[in-house]
Amino acid sequence: MNLYLLFKAIGFSLLVIIGIPGNIFILLQFTSIKIIEKKLLPTNTILTMLATANLLVIFSRIIPQALNAIGIENLLDDVECKLVIFTYRVGRAMSICVTSILSCHQCILIAPSTKLWTFLKQKVSQNALTIIIIFCFINLSMYSYSFINAHARRNMTSSSPYTLHLIYCDSDFQTYTSYIVNGIFYTIRDFMFVGLMVIASVYIVYMLIWHERTVKGIRSSDRGQKRSAEYKASRAVILLVALYVLLFGLDNAMWIYTLTLTNASPDMNDIRIFLASSYATLSSIVIIITNPKLKHSLKYSFRKRSIAKESGNNELVFSVTK
Predict the structure, then answer these.
(1) What global pTM score does this model have?
(2) φ/ψ of residue 150, rounded to 5
């Protein structure tokens, strides 16, 4: 195994090892909260959907990349390639959509309580899940073409010059026009959502600065505590958006560069995929660290395990001395 493959195997394996438990933990904890408390905050509902999209990305793209890096070849046939590529594209699209919805929702939550903002707060909070489901159906229909142009990896010399080589699978656009139109369309889509995130985040930052200047006078009141919780959540959203913009910005920059090439090298696609896929793992860490309920649950689990371990050690000592 050469050095490049070694780093590739380690990198993608770490994304799998950290990403799957992290996102499953988020799903299980929020599901548990929903069952016990009979309700789930809209923000936590959005985070649950983000964790679901992250898992789709990990299973459909990161795991195949890790398996390929350790030397497993010819893993998928044509049908499996169509399903894997479709799942990855939908998962990636939902990731950007849900992150954008999260930033916009938080922007609306901390906005002043004017008539318009109050109306938006009620409508968006009540229909957050419905909005996400609508985007899900849109992305499912948009990426249905994956079942047409995706197939198992073939001899590169027999491939169309407008083919994306994605480890076990190829995505063949047949003509230069379809290749360029597809790339430009989805790049514009990504930048629109990223732009929406940035605008919402800039407004959140503005409100945070204003909050810091006025928080002294309301810190002792219940309203102040509520606002403080909202602004802590806002900081978490800004961190997620910053992470997304960094990783996916680099990904899209490389994507634009590949549009100028024919038969882009697999190594370049690997780097793009690693950058895009990293968000599926790193965002779960950010969510767990910044969400009070998840952070408390994680600390409680570690504390409970530590107590159980100490009890087991005490019982062992007692049995030995006895």
Answers:
(1) 0.84
(2) -100, 140
- The continuous run of DSSP H or E covering 166 comes out as strand 163-166
DSSP code of 262? S
Instruction: Tell which residue, 249, 248, 255, 253, has the closest CA to residue 269.
Output: 255
pLDDT tens string 43-71: 999 999 999 999 999 998 899 888 888 88
Cα distances (angstroms) measured from residue 22 to each of 17, 34, 132, 176, 279: 9, 19, 21, 40, 12
Residue tagged 């899940």 (tokens): 129
For residue 151 the two structure tokens come to 């197939």
d(CA 54, CA 77): 24
Residue listed under structure tokens 């900081």: 235
pLDDT at 318 over 50: no
Residues in the chain: 322
Domain 3-77+87-152+185-253+270-306 indexed as CATH 1.10.10.10: no
Count CA atoms closer than 13 A to 127's CA, side-chain side: 10
Q: With pLDDT > 90 as the criterion, what percentage of the chain qualifies?
A: 25
